[in-house]
């Protein structure tokens, strides 16, 4: 076959993609895209595999990094929550200490006011002992806020720290005496203590506002309201003592009583509403407390402010009842304080658990992350190693495939072989004009009898390899060799118009001339002689068999060509009348009329000898002499 036919078949055959194809494509684009770009993208190169490995490692590292980032953010939130809880604890401690100081100042205010009012004649408890309790509460303060106090006379604002406040408190206590004008002295005492308690309560309110994002804010508000309620009720009690001791309240004290009494009760209700379970405690308090009913009556009488005869005994009873009532409210205040401590401890415990859990998660992520990366790296390395081996095997397979395809295309027509490889059915095909060539060696039976089998095979291998090389120059297809018989056709499997006649005729002259270069084994002086027969006409071609499929030709044209060879003479080309007519139409060839001969199965036929082309045929003896030394190649059977 011509080279262009083989190229056509290769382009139509099935191709596989392997690393060799990739490398070839990369090499084709080498100058267009650059060495580095090709190596970076092609996994067939070492650099490409390294970049691919890096990409596969970075790919799982992205969610791991996101998880680490998320866990770190959660840890920051947890630490912030822990700091907030600690801050809440310190604020609650501060509020508790302030509450204790306010309570002691409230008690001291009541005792001092009653002491002044009674001119030191009647005391509910020892005044010096009360002072000492207040001092201890001040000493137990973890921190002291700067207080802003307005003086009574000129309204100036004074900032007091701990030492200044204690000095001011000591001076105030020393100035207490039993002089006359106790009403104004009581008012001064109320103002001083109320101003200090108001400043402390204002600071406590600010502390609770700072902690209003925590879970204990409502308990802190309840605690603050209870302190303010006790403060207001305690002040109103002072005015109640004045009422029963003087018989009537002047307008300003009366307004102050009403104001503090109403505000105190509202704050008490608000405190109980923030902690609903305290309502039951308050109801129990009102049920079991002695004198609770009288307090309501006394309060109603004071609100009416009807002038009556002063009664020191009733004032004392009222003072004692109000003091007992306020003491019960302080018990509720202590209950709120314990509830706050419990809630703060819950917050701290929750913060500790969250912090421990967050640290554990972060540690697990930091430990697992490198393990995952190492496993991914090992997996990718294994896959790449397998891919490299697979690519090498694919390369070897492709190379072997090319060898097998080359062998298959020598045994069958490439188009037919391609269809068989694709598991397609190859139907028989009719060709209306084909030229058939037959040749055999004259006296081959005697030659084979005189030579060893190895010599016979070597002899046939040498001459037919030369024939195979020669026919590559023509548009012909070798059908088969059986013994010393050599069969070639033109015009199939690829049709070539009317070129098949001239192609076979030229080839026959060439092979006849080249055969003279060989000599008979053991008879080096006797050249090889061949007979050639040619006929042209229609044939049917198709694949016969499945175990060892062969491309065979059928029809009278094949039989006639074979009879032309068998009835021919040595070193001559015997052709039929049809072949001669075609050569005459084409021109360029010389023939001689042989005459009528008896052909087996055909009868008498008029035949011709093909002698030569018009013009000299080159002598190729020197070109083919090397075939005499060729040895056959045997397949080793294992």
Structure in a nutshell:
It is built from 20 helices and twelve strands. The chain is an alpha+beta fold and 638 residues long. The strands form three sheets. Strands 3, 4, 5, 8, 9, 10, 11 and 12 form an eight-stranded mixed β-sheet that branches. The chain has a two-stranded antiparallel sheet with strand order 1-2. It has a two-stranded antiparallel ribbon with strand order 6-7.
What does this 3D model show about the protein?
The chain is an alpha+beta fold and 638 residues long. Helix content is 65%, strand content 14%. The strands form three sheets. Strands 3, 4, 5, 8, 9, 10, 11 and 12 form an eight-stranded mixed β-sheet that branches. A two-stranded antiparallel ribbon has the order 1-2. The protein has a two-stranded antiparallel sheet with strand order 6-7. The longest helix has 100 residues, at 312-411. Residues 1-34 and 616-638 have low confidence and may be disordered.
């Amino acid at each position: 076959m011509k080279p262009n036919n083989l190229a056509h078949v290769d382009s139509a055959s099935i191709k596989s993609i392997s690393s060799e194809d990739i490398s070839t494509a990369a090499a084709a684009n080498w100058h267009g895209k650059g060495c580095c770009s090709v190596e970076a993208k092609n996994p067939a190169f070492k650099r490409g595999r390294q970049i691919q490995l890096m990409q596969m490692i970075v790919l799982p590292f992205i969610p791991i990094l996101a998880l680490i980032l998320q866990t770190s953010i959660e840890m920051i939130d947890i630490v912030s929550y822990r700091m907030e809880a600690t801050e809440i604890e310190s604020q609650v401690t501060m509020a508790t200490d302030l509450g204790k100081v306010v309570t002691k100042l409230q008690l001291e205010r009541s005792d001092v006011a009653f002491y002044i009012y009674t001119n030191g004649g009647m005391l509910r408890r020892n005044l010096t002992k009360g002072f000492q309790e207040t001092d201890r509460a001040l000493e137990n303060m973890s921190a002291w806020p700067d207080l802003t106090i307005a003086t009574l006379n000129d309204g100036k604002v004074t900032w007091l720290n701990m030492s200044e406040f204690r000095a001011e408190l000591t001076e105030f206590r020393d100035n207490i005496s039993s002089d006359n004008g106790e009403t104004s002295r009581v008012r001064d005492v109320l103002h001083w203590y109320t101003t200090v308690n108001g400043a402390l309560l204002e600071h406590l309110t600010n502390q609770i506002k700072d902690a209003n994002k925590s879970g204990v804010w409502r308990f802190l508000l309840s605690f603050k309201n209870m302190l303010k309620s006790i403060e207001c009720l305690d002040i109103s009690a002072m005015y109640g003592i004045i009422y029963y001791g003087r018989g009537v309240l002047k307008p300003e004290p009366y307004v102050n009583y009403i104001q503090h009494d109403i505000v105190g009760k509202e704050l008490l209700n608000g405190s109980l509403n923030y902690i609903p379970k305290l309502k039951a405690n308050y109801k129990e308090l009102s049920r079991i407390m002695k004198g609770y009913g009288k307090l309501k009556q006394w309060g109603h009488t004071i609100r009416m402010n009807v002038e009556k005869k002063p009664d020191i005994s009733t004032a004392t009873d009222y003072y004692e009842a109000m003091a007992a009532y306020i003491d019960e409210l302080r018990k509720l205040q202590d209950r709120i304080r314990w509830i706050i401590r419990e809630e703060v401890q819950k917050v701290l415990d929750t913060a500790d658990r969250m912090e421990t859990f967050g640290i554990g998660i972060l540690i697990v992520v930091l430990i697992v992350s490198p393990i995952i990366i190492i496993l991914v790296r090992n997996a990718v390395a294994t896959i790449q190693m397998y891919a490299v081996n697979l690519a090498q095997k694919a390369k070897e397979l492709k190379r072997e495939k090319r060898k097998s395809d080359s062998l298959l295309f020598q045994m069958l027509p490439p188009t037919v072989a391609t269809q068989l490889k694709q598991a397609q059915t190859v139907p028989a095909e009719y060709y209306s004009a084909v030229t058939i060539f037959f040749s055999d060696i004259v006296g081959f039976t005697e030659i084979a009898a005189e030579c060893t089998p190895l010599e016979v095979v070597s002899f046939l291998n040498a001459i037919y390899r030369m024939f195979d090389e020669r026919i590559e120059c023509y548009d012909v297809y070798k059908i088969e060799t059986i013994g010393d018989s050599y069969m070639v056709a033109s015009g199939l499997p690829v049709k070539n118009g009317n070129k098949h006649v001239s192609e076979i005729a030229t080839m026959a002259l060439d092979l006849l001339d080249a055969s003279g270069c060989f000599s008979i084994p053991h008879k080096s002086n006797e050249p090889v002689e061949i007979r050639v027969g040619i006929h042209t006409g229609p044939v049917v071609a198709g694949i016969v068999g499945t175990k060892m499929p062969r491309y065979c030709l059928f029809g009278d044209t094949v039989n006639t060509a074979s009879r032309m060879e068998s009835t021919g003479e040595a070193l001559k080309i015997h052709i039929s009348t049809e072949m001669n007519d075609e050569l005459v139409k084409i021109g360029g060839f010389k023939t001689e009329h042989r005459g009528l001969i008896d052909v087996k199965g055909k009868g008498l036929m008029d035949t011709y000898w093909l002698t030569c082309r018009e013009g000299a045929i080159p002598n190729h003896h020197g070109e083919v002499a090397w075939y005499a030394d060729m040895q056959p190649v045997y397949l080793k059977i294992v």
